[in-house]
Amino acid sequence: xxxxxxxxxxxxxxxxxxxxxxxxxxxxxxxxxxxxxxxxxxxxxxxxxxxxxxxxxxxxxxxxxxxxxxxxxxxxxxxxxxxxxxxxxxxxxxxxxxxxxxxxxxxxxxxxxxxxxxxxxxxxxxxxxxxxxxxxxxxxxxxxxxxxxxxxxxxxxxxxxxxxxxxxxxxxxxxxxxxxxxxxxxxxxxxxxxxxxxxxxxxxxxxxxx
Length: 210
What we know:
By secondary structure, the chain is an alpha/beta fold. It has five helices and twelve strands. The protein has a single domain, classed as Rossmann fold.
């Protein structure tokens, strides 16, 4: 008997008392979040865990946001910045670099010539320090957040901040192209030497904007 047949046999035995065409209920009695927090404490936890993953965290308000993005881009000195089609235009109203709009015909080689990208996000998870992109117009296609070396991601506080992964999943459409980001792209070799920017941006800057 193969391993496949053994596993399927166990599944059949486990479902033996379930009537045909009836789905077995799945118990979901796990904790939805760990501890009780105020909105401010949840946002603070998000900032703490983002920083722990080596993301650079900034806090601002909607009026100051365009000037903060301008300063962050000026510090990097990019000639071009990639923007998704639905990025709110006021976010980039003070920025100097030439904006490159993502197009379906854009190749990976062309996108690799762009140093920075600015996006929004779908949701941010405080307990894990994770931001999730779902391909919405203010985030664009998955590859535009993976190819440039510098990613500025704007999180609307507190509307887009949740405490836990279960709460995030309730907001997300599993049919959409979800990208889960916890800090800048990194890996390590057998000697545990950390290398950043391997399969995504080397620098991740998260802007928490009220």
